[in-house]
Amino acid sequence: NLKKVQHLLDLPNAKTQLTLWKADLSDEGSYDDAINGCDGVFHIATPMDFESKDP
Hints:
Elements: H1 2-9, H2 14-17, H3 32-35
């Protein structure tokens, strides 16, 4: 969703120094390619599980 990330893409040097990836916390291994060879990672997601486990 470009609307959600445009402010990041507009940062100075973003075109050459920033790569955005989409991954799924519930899909094991979906982060492997995204973090391979990285110097740093900003993980800014959390699982959104609103279903009650104990009704």
